[in-house]
Amino acid sequence: MADHKSAKKRIRQTARRTEVNTARRSRVRTFIKKIILAVEAGDKPAAEAALKDARPEMQRGVSKGVYHKNTVSRQLSRLTKKVKEI
């Protein structure tokens, strides 16, 4: 276990950060799921709206360091392609 004051603080910070990152990752996954469900249902307006809502949330995940930029870029590209195919 940590003995130094700074190490104990680091443990607290890491726990807090992990909680925030987990919540953000879960939120992004929920947005992605909404897009996929709308695409499977064949509801283009709903899919486009879901994509419009998901894009900034996914980009925020990149800026906060939860996701790699290429990962989000790839996911957005694929989701946009699926929405356009409806």
Description:
By secondary structure, the protein is mainly alpha-helical. It has one domain: Ribosomal protein S20 (Methane Monooxygenase Hydroxylase, Chain G, domain 1, Up-down Bundle). Helices cover 86% and strands 0% of the residues. The protein contains 3 helices and no strands. The chain has helices at 5-41, 44-63, 69-85. Helix 2 packs antiparallel against helix 3 (69-85). It is elongated. The termini are far apart. The mean pLDDT is 94.
What is shown here, in short?
By secondary structure, the chain is an all-alpha fold. The chain is built from three helices and no strands.
Order of helices and strands: HHH
What kind of sheet is the major sheet? none
CATH class label: Mainly Alpha
Range of strand content? under 5%
- Name given to the CATH homologous superfamily: Ribosomal protein S20
Unreliable spans are none
* DSSP strand tally: 0
In the CATH scheme, what's the topology name? Methane Monooxygenase Hydroxylase, Chain G, domain 1
Number of domains: 1
Distance N to C terminus: 55 Å
Structural class: mainly alpha
Task: Summarize this structure as a short list of keywords or feature phrases.
86 residues, mainly alpha, Methane Monooxygenase Hydroxylase, Chain G, domain 1, 3 helices, 86% helix
Task: Set out the fold topology.
Elements: H1 5-41, H2 44-63, H3 69-85
